[in-house]
Write a structure and sequence with these properties.
alpha/beta, six-stranded mixed β-sheet, 21% strand, 13 helices, 2 domains, 370 residues, Rossmann fold, binds NADP nicotinamide-adenine-dinucleotide phosphate, single chain
Protein backbone atom coordinates (compact mmCIF):
# COMPACT_ATOMS: atom_id res chain seq x y z
CA UNK A 1 0.00 0.00 0.00
CA UNK A 2 1.36 3.45 -0.92
CA UNK A 3 2.03 5.82 1.97
CA UNK A 4 2.10 9.57 2.51
CA UNK A 5 2.64 12.08 5.28
CA UNK A 6 1.28 15.58 5.62
CA UNK A 7 2.81 18.30 7.80
CA UNK A 8 0.26 20.20 9.88
CA UNK A 9 0.61 22.97 12.44
CA UNK A 10 -1.79 24.85 14.72
CA UNK A 11 -3.26 27.97 13.13
CA UNK A 12 -4.33 29.53 16.44
CA UNK A 13 -4.17 28.96 20.18
CA UNK A 14 -7.61 27.25 19.97
CA UNK A 15 -6.04 24.86 17.49
CA UNK A 16 -3.24 24.08 19.97
CA UNK A 17 -5.87 22.87 22.46
CA UNK A 18 -7.49 20.68 19.78
CA UNK A 19 -4.11 19.15 18.89
CA UNK A 20 -3.06 18.77 22.52
CA UNK A 21 -6.01 18.80 24.97
CA UNK A 22 -3.50 19.19 27.84
CA UNK A 23 -2.89 22.78 26.67
CA UNK A 24 -6.48 23.83 27.48
CA UNK A 25 -6.69 26.44 30.23
CA UNK A 26 -2.97 27.26 30.17
CA UNK A 27 -2.05 30.92 29.62
CA UNK A 28 -1.38 32.07 26.05
CA UNK A 29 2.18 33.20 26.83
CA UNK A 30 3.04 29.80 28.39
CA UNK A 31 1.61 27.90 25.44
CA UNK A 32 3.59 30.04 22.98
CA UNK A 33 6.76 29.49 25.02
CA UNK A 34 6.23 25.72 25.19
CA UNK A 35 5.81 25.65 21.42
CA UNK A 36 9.19 27.28 20.96
CA UNK A 37 10.89 24.10 22.07
CA UNK A 38 8.24 21.48 21.35
CA UNK A 39 9.59 18.89 18.90
CA UNK A 40 7.61 17.64 15.87
CA UNK A 41 5.36 14.67 16.58
CA UNK A 42 3.13 12.14 14.92
CA UNK A 43 -0.44 13.36 15.41
CA UNK A 44 -2.77 11.10 13.45
CA UNK A 45 -2.81 7.86 11.52
CA UNK A 46 -4.84 8.13 8.32
CA UNK A 47 -6.54 4.97 7.07
CA UNK A 48 -9.46 4.02 4.82
CA UNK A 49 -8.68 6.43 1.95
CA UNK A 50 -9.83 4.30 -0.98
CA UNK A 51 -10.41 5.15 -4.66
CA UNK A 52 -13.57 3.78 -6.33
CA UNK A 53 -11.49 1.02 -8.02
CA UNK A 54 -10.23 -0.21 -4.63
CA UNK A 55 -6.75 1.39 -4.54
CA UNK A 56 -6.05 2.31 -0.94
CA UNK A 57 -3.39 4.33 0.86
CA UNK A 58 -2.20 4.91 4.39
CA UNK A 59 -0.72 8.07 5.87
CA UNK A 60 0.16 10.24 8.84
CA UNK A 61 -0.45 13.83 9.86
CA UNK A 62 2.81 14.96 11.44
CA UNK A 63 3.00 18.23 13.30
CA UNK A 64 5.63 20.96 13.13
CA UNK A 65 4.11 22.68 16.14
CA UNK A 66 4.55 26.40 15.53
CA UNK A 67 1.88 29.08 15.16
CA UNK A 68 1.70 30.99 11.82
CA UNK A 69 3.40 34.09 13.25
CA UNK A 70 6.14 31.92 14.78
CA UNK A 71 6.70 30.29 11.36
CA UNK A 72 7.20 33.74 9.84
CA UNK A 73 9.24 35.28 12.69
CA UNK A 74 11.61 32.47 13.75
CA UNK A 75 14.95 32.07 11.99
CA UNK A 76 14.21 30.48 8.62
CA UNK A 77 16.70 27.60 9.13
CA UNK A 78 15.10 26.67 12.44
CA UNK A 79 11.63 26.53 10.86
CA UNK A 80 12.93 24.46 7.93
CA UNK A 81 14.60 22.15 10.46
CA UNK A 82 11.32 21.55 12.28
CA UNK A 83 9.42 20.87 9.06
CA UNK A 84 12.11 18.43 7.89
CA UNK A 85 12.04 16.62 11.26
CA UNK A 86 8.26 16.25 10.90
CA UNK A 87 8.73 14.81 7.40
CA UNK A 88 11.39 12.43 8.78
CA UNK A 89 8.78 11.02 11.19
CA UNK A 90 6.66 10.17 8.14
CA UNK A 91 9.66 8.75 6.28
CA UNK A 92 10.47 6.44 9.22
CA UNK A 93 6.90 5.12 8.96
CA UNK A 94 7.29 4.46 5.23
CA UNK A 95 5.86 7.63 3.65
CA UNK A 96 6.81 8.02 -0.02
CA UNK A 97 5.51 11.56 -0.56
CA UNK A 98 5.03 14.50 1.82
CA UNK A 99 2.56 17.38 1.74
CA UNK A 100 3.04 20.77 3.39
CA UNK A 101 0.07 22.25 5.25
CA UNK A 102 -0.79 25.94 5.67
CA UNK A 103 2.29 28.04 6.63
CA UNK A 104 4.75 25.15 6.23
CA UNK A 105 4.09 25.69 2.48
CA UNK A 106 4.24 29.49 2.71
CA UNK A 107 7.42 30.06 4.71
CA UNK A 108 10.53 30.89 2.65
CA UNK A 109 10.35 29.78 -0.97
CA UNK A 110 7.10 27.81 -0.87
CA UNK A 111 8.51 24.30 -0.41
CA UNK A 112 11.44 24.46 -2.85
CA UNK A 113 14.21 24.28 -0.22
CA UNK A 114 12.29 21.78 1.91
CA UNK A 115 11.94 19.52 -1.14
CA UNK A 116 15.69 19.80 -1.91
CA UNK A 117 16.55 18.69 1.62
CA UNK A 118 13.80 16.09 2.11
CA UNK A 119 14.49 12.39 1.56
CA UNK A 120 11.09 12.04 -0.17
CA UNK A 121 9.37 14.30 -2.73
CA UNK A 122 7.37 17.19 -1.32
CA UNK A 123 4.28 19.03 -2.57
CA UNK A 124 2.55 22.13 -1.23
CA UNK A 125 -0.81 20.79 -2.39
CA UNK A 126 -1.56 24.19 -3.91
CA UNK A 127 -2.56 22.86 -7.35
CA UNK A 128 -5.64 21.06 -6.01
CA UNK A 129 -6.34 23.96 -3.62
CA UNK A 130 -6.46 26.28 -6.65
CA UNK A 131 -8.79 23.92 -8.54
CA UNK A 132 -11.12 23.51 -5.54
CA UNK A 133 -10.97 27.24 -4.77
CA UNK A 134 -12.00 28.26 -8.28
CA UNK A 135 -14.85 25.72 -8.26
CA UNK A 136 -16.03 27.09 -4.89
CA UNK A 137 -15.74 30.68 -6.06
CA UNK A 138 -18.07 30.13 -9.04
CA UNK A 139 -20.41 27.92 -6.97
CA UNK A 140 -20.79 30.85 -4.57
CA UNK A 141 -21.56 33.20 -7.48
CA UNK A 142 -24.21 30.76 -8.75
CA UNK A 143 -25.82 30.46 -5.31
CA UNK A 144 -26.00 34.25 -4.93
CA UNK A 145 -27.31 34.60 -8.50
CA UNK A 146 -24.38 36.75 -9.61
CA UNK A 147 -23.54 36.59 -13.30
CA UNK A 148 -19.70 36.46 -13.31
CA UNK A 149 -19.55 37.77 -16.87
CA UNK A 150 -20.86 41.14 -15.71
CA UNK A 151 -19.14 41.14 -12.29
CA UNK A 152 -15.90 42.52 -10.90
CA UNK A 153 -13.78 40.02 -8.97
CA UNK A 154 -10.97 40.78 -6.54
CA UNK A 155 -8.15 38.35 -5.80
CA UNK A 156 -6.45 39.22 -2.50
CA UNK A 157 -2.97 37.69 -2.47
CA UNK A 158 -2.77 37.96 -6.28
CA UNK A 159 1.04 37.68 -6.40
CA UNK A 160 1.09 34.50 -4.31
CA UNK A 161 1.31 30.87 -5.31
CA UNK A 162 -2.44 30.24 -5.07
CA UNK A 163 -3.66 33.76 -5.86
CA UNK A 164 -1.66 34.19 -9.08
CA UNK A 165 -3.07 30.98 -10.58
CA UNK A 166 -6.59 31.93 -9.43
CA UNK A 167 -6.24 35.26 -11.29
CA UNK A 168 -5.65 33.34 -14.53
CA UNK A 169 -8.47 30.84 -13.97
CA UNK A 170 -11.05 33.43 -12.93
CA UNK A 171 -10.24 36.09 -15.56
CA UNK A 172 -11.84 34.32 -18.58
CA UNK A 173 -15.22 34.23 -16.84
CA UNK A 174 -15.52 37.70 -15.23
CA UNK A 175 -15.71 41.29 -16.47
CA UNK A 176 -12.88 42.75 -14.37
CA UNK A 177 -10.21 41.37 -12.03
CA UNK A 178 -8.71 43.57 -9.30
CA UNK A 179 -5.37 42.19 -8.07
CA UNK A 180 -4.36 42.92 -4.47
CA UNK A 181 -1.18 42.36 -2.44
CA UNK A 182 0.94 44.39 -0.01
CA UNK A 183 4.22 44.75 -1.87
CA UNK A 184 3.45 47.38 -4.51
CA UNK A 185 6.60 46.85 -6.57
CA UNK A 186 5.95 43.13 -6.93
CA UNK A 187 2.25 43.71 -7.57
CA UNK A 188 2.90 46.31 -10.28
CA UNK A 189 5.39 43.96 -11.98
CA UNK A 190 2.95 41.04 -11.72
CA UNK A 191 0.15 43.13 -13.20
CA UNK A 192 2.41 44.41 -15.99
CA UNK A 193 3.46 40.89 -16.98
CA UNK A 194 0.11 39.13 -16.60
CA UNK A 195 -2.57 41.68 -17.54
CA UNK A 196 -1.78 41.46 -21.28
CA UNK A 197 -2.41 37.70 -21.11
CA UNK A 198 -5.85 38.03 -19.49
CA UNK A 199 -9.09 38.26 -21.47
CA UNK A 200 -10.82 40.77 -19.15
CA UNK A 201 -10.34 44.24 -17.75
CA UNK A 202 -7.78 44.35 -14.93
CA UNK A 203 -6.48 46.72 -12.26
CA UNK A 204 -4.35 46.46 -9.14
CA UNK A 205 -4.12 48.09 -5.74
CA UNK A 206 -2.53 47.57 -2.34
CA UNK A 207 -5.67 48.99 -0.70
CA UNK A 208 -7.80 46.00 0.30
CA UNK A 209 -10.83 48.01 1.44
CA UNK A 210 -10.91 49.93 -1.79
CA UNK A 211 -10.65 46.75 -3.88
CA UNK A 212 -13.29 44.84 -1.92
CA UNK A 213 -15.70 47.78 -2.18
CA UNK A 214 -15.46 47.53 -5.99
CA UNK A 215 -16.20 43.79 -6.34
CA UNK A 216 -19.19 41.47 -6.09
CA UNK A 217 -16.89 38.43 -6.00
CA UNK A 218 -13.89 38.10 -3.67
CA UNK A 219 -11.28 35.35 -3.49
CA UNK A 220 -8.75 35.59 -0.71
CA UNK A 221 -5.51 33.56 -0.51
CA UNK A 222 -3.02 35.49 1.58
CA UNK A 223 -0.36 34.73 4.15
CA UNK A 224 -1.76 37.34 6.53
CA UNK A 225 -1.90 36.26 10.16
CA UNK A 226 -4.69 38.76 10.88
CA UNK A 227 -8.19 39.54 9.62
CA UNK A 228 -8.08 41.69 6.51
CA UNK A 229 -11.64 41.43 5.09
CA UNK A 230 -13.97 43.57 7.18
CA UNK A 231 -17.79 43.75 7.07
CA UNK A 232 -18.04 47.44 6.27
CA UNK A 233 -16.16 47.00 2.97
CA UNK A 234 -18.26 44.25 1.40
CA UNK A 235 -20.84 44.99 -1.29
CA UNK A 236 -24.45 43.98 -0.68
CA UNK A 237 -24.90 40.32 -1.66
CA UNK A 238 -21.17 39.77 -2.22
CA UNK A 239 -19.51 36.34 -2.29
CA UNK A 240 -16.22 35.76 -0.48
CA UNK A 241 -14.33 32.55 -1.21
CA UNK A 242 -11.78 32.11 1.57
CA UNK A 243 -8.72 29.95 0.94
CA UNK A 244 -6.37 31.46 3.52
CA UNK A 245 -5.39 29.48 6.62
CA UNK A 246 -5.61 31.13 9.09
CA UNK A 247 -8.68 32.89 7.70
CA UNK A 248 -8.63 36.45 6.36
CA UNK A 249 -12.32 37.18 6.84
CA UNK A 250 -13.24 38.82 10.12
CA UNK A 251 -15.76 36.90 12.24
CA UNK A 252 -17.64 40.18 12.44
CA UNK A 253 -18.81 39.46 8.87
CA UNK A 254 -20.82 36.49 10.17
CA UNK A 255 -22.54 38.70 12.74
CA UNK A 256 -22.93 41.96 10.88
CA UNK A 257 -23.42 40.96 7.23
CA UNK A 258 -26.20 38.35 6.85
CA UNK A 259 -26.43 39.40 3.16
CA UNK A 260 -22.88 38.20 2.32
CA UNK A 261 -21.99 34.60 1.43
CA UNK A 262 -18.61 33.61 2.87
CA UNK A 263 -17.42 30.13 1.98
CA UNK A 264 -14.23 28.21 2.76
CA UNK A 265 -13.04 27.24 -0.68
CA UNK A 266 -10.48 24.51 -0.09
CA UNK A 267 -12.30 21.59 1.52
CA UNK A 268 -12.80 18.20 -0.15
CA UNK A 269 -14.66 14.99 0.67
CA UNK A 270 -12.21 12.07 0.80
CA UNK A 271 -13.25 8.77 -0.86
CA UNK A 272 -13.59 5.46 0.97
CA UNK A 273 -14.01 5.32 4.73
CA UNK A 274 -11.31 7.76 5.83
CA UNK A 275 -10.31 7.82 9.46
CA UNK A 276 -7.88 10.23 11.15
CA UNK A 277 -7.03 8.43 14.39
CA UNK A 278 -5.00 10.14 17.10
CA UNK A 279 -1.68 8.36 17.52
CA UNK A 280 -1.22 9.20 21.22
CA UNK A 281 -4.81 8.42 22.20
CA UNK A 282 -5.61 5.39 20.05
CA UNK A 283 -9.31 4.95 19.33
CA UNK A 284 -9.96 8.72 19.34
CA UNK A 285 -10.39 10.71 16.16
CA UNK A 286 -8.20 13.70 15.41
CA UNK A 287 -10.44 16.75 15.02
CA UNK A 288 -9.51 18.70 11.88
CA UNK A 289 -12.37 21.09 12.64
CA UNK A 290 -14.05 19.90 9.45
CA UNK A 291 -17.09 17.65 8.85
CA UNK A 292 -16.54 13.85 8.78
CA UNK A 293 -14.68 12.45 5.74
CA UNK A 294 -13.49 15.96 4.85
CA UNK A 295 -9.91 17.16 4.37
CA UNK A 296 -8.23 20.28 3.07
CA UNK A 297 -7.56 20.34 -0.66
CA UNK A 298 -3.79 20.45 -0.05
CA UNK A 299 -4.05 17.24 2.02
CA UNK A 300 -6.21 15.78 -0.72
CA UNK A 301 -3.53 16.56 -3.35
CA UNK A 302 -0.98 14.61 -1.27
CA UNK A 303 -3.43 11.70 -0.96
CA UNK A 304 -4.10 11.72 -4.72
CA UNK A 305 -0.34 11.60 -5.45
CA UNK A 306 -0.05 8.59 -3.12
CA UNK A 307 -3.08 6.87 -4.70
CA UNK A 308 -1.60 7.47 -8.16
CA UNK A 309 1.93 6.39 -7.17
CA UNK A 310 3.14 9.82 -8.33
CA UNK A 311 6.05 10.22 -5.94
CA UNK A 312 7.22 13.57 -7.30
CA UNK A 313 7.51 17.18 -6.08
CA UNK A 314 4.22 18.00 -7.79
CA UNK A 315 3.57 21.60 -6.68
CA UNK A 316 6.34 23.88 -5.40
CA UNK A 317 7.15 27.58 -5.29
CA UNK A 318 5.19 30.60 -6.43
CA UNK A 319 4.88 30.05 -10.19
CA UNK A 320 2.16 27.43 -10.54
CA UNK A 321 1.87 25.41 -13.73
CA UNK A 322 -1.80 25.70 -14.74
CA UNK A 323 -1.58 22.38 -16.62
CA UNK A 324 -0.91 20.70 -13.28
CA UNK A 325 -4.00 22.32 -11.76
CA UNK A 326 -6.06 20.79 -14.58
CA UNK A 327 -4.31 17.42 -14.25
CA UNK A 328 -4.63 17.08 -10.47
CA UNK A 329 -8.29 18.14 -10.63
CA UNK A 330 -8.95 15.29 -13.10
CA UNK A 331 -6.92 12.76 -11.06
CA UNK A 332 -8.74 13.77 -7.86
CA UNK A 333 -12.12 13.33 -9.58
CA UNK A 334 -11.07 9.91 -10.90
CA UNK A 335 -9.96 8.89 -7.41
CA UNK A 336 -13.34 9.89 -5.95
CA UNK A 337 -12.52 13.25 -4.29
CA UNK A 338 -15.34 15.79 -4.50
CA UNK A 339 -15.74 19.42 -3.48
CA UNK A 340 -17.12 19.53 0.06
CA UNK A 341 -20.44 21.22 0.81
CA UNK A 342 -20.23 24.92 1.57
CA UNK A 343 -19.08 25.92 5.01
CA UNK A 344 -17.82 28.98 6.87
CA UNK A 345 -17.17 30.16 10.43
CA UNK A 346 -17.14 26.51 11.68
CA UNK A 347 -20.68 25.82 10.40
CA UNK A 348 -22.33 24.26 7.36
CA UNK A 349 -24.03 26.57 4.86
CA UNK A 350 -27.40 24.89 4.34
CA UNK A 351 -29.77 25.62 1.41
CA UNK A 352 -31.96 27.48 3.95
CA UNK A 353 -28.99 29.62 4.98
CA UNK A 354 -28.23 30.44 1.34
CA UNK A 355 -31.88 31.43 0.76
CA UNK A 356 -31.75 33.61 3.89
CA UNK A 357 -28.54 35.26 2.63
CA UNK A 358 -30.13 36.01 -0.75
CA UNK A 359 -33.21 37.45 1.00
CA UNK A 360 -31.04 39.60 3.28
CA UNK A 361 -29.21 40.92 0.21
CA UNK A 362 -32.48 41.76 -1.56
CA UNK A 363 -33.77 43.53 1.57
CA UNK A 364 -30.57 45.55 1.94
CA UNK A 365 -30.74 46.59 -1.73
CA UNK A 366 -34.36 47.76 -1.24
CA UNK A 367 -33.31 49.73 1.84
CA UNK A 368 -30.50 51.45 -0.05
CA UNK A 369 -32.88 52.46 -2.89
CA UNK A 370 -35.60 53.72 -0.49
N1 LIG B 1 -7.45 25.61 2.06
C1 LIG B 1 -6.38 24.89 1.72
O1 LIG B 1 -6.44 23.68 1.46
C2 LIG B 1 -5.06 25.59 1.61
C3 LIG B 1 -4.00 24.91 1.00
C4 LIG B 1 -2.79 25.54 0.87
C5 LIG B 1 -2.62 26.84 1.36
N2 LIG B 1 -3.65 27.47 1.98
C6 LIG B 1 -3.50 28.85 2.48
O2 LIG B 1 -3.55 29.76 1.37
C7 LIG B 1 -2.88 30.97 1.72
C8 LIG B 1 -1.97 31.43 0.58
O3 LIG B 1 -0.94 30.47 0.37
P1 LIG B 1 0.17 30.69 -0.78
O4 LIG B 1 1.00 29.47 -0.80
O5 LIG B 1 -0.47 31.17 -2.04
O6 LIG B 1 1.00 31.90 -0.11
P2 LIG B 1 2.09 32.86 -0.78
O7 LIG B 1 2.60 32.30 -2.06
O8 LIG B 1 3.06 33.22 0.27
O9 LIG B 1 1.25 34.17 -1.18
C9 LIG B 1 0.68 35.01 -0.22
C10 LIG B 1 0.05 36.20 -0.91
O10 LIG B 1 -0.63 36.98 0.09
C11 LIG B 1 -0.20 38.34 0.00
N3 LIG B 1 -0.35 38.92 1.34
C12 LIG B 1 0.24 38.53 2.48
N4 LIG B 1 -0.20 39.26 3.51
C13 LIG B 1 -1.11 40.12 3.00
C14 LIG B 1 -1.91 41.14 3.57
N5 LIG B 1 -1.87 41.43 4.88
N6 LIG B 1 -2.74 41.83 2.75
C15 LIG B 1 -2.80 41.57 1.42
N7 LIG B 1 -2.06 40.59 0.83
C16 LIG B 1 -1.22 39.90 1.61
C17 LIG B 1 1.24 38.24 -0.52
O11 LIG B 1 1.69 39.39 -1.16
P3 LIG B 1 2.56 40.50 -0.37
O12 LIG B 1 3.67 39.83 0.31
O13 LIG B 1 2.94 41.49 -1.41
O14 LIG B 1 1.57 41.09 0.54
C18 LIG B 1 1.04 37.14 -1.58
O15 LIG B 1 0.44 37.68 -2.74
C19 LIG B 1 -2.17 30.69 3.05
O16 LIG B 1 -2.97 31.21 4.09
C20 LIG B 1 -2.17 29.17 3.14
O17 LIG B 1 -2.14 28.70 4.47
C21 LIG B 1 -4.86 26.87 2.07
Amino acid sequence: MNKFCFVIHPLSLEDVARYEPGAKGKGDAIVRKIMEWMPPWNVAHVTGVRAPDGREIEGWFVSAPLLPEQMMEFPREEVYGRILKAIQIGVDLGAQVAGLGAFTAVVGDGGVTINERSPIPVTTGNSLTIAAGVQSFFRGAREMEIDPASAAAVVVGATGSIGSACVHLIAPRVKHVVMVARNETRLRKFHGEHAPLLPCETSFTTNISDAVRRAQLVLTATSSTQDIIEPEDLQTGAVVCELSLPHDVSRRVALERPDVLVTEGGNMVVPGTPRFERVRERGNDFDLNLPPRTALACMSETMVLALEGRFEPYTLGRGIDLAKVVEIEALAARDGFTLADMRAFDAAITPEKIAATRNAAAKRRREVVA
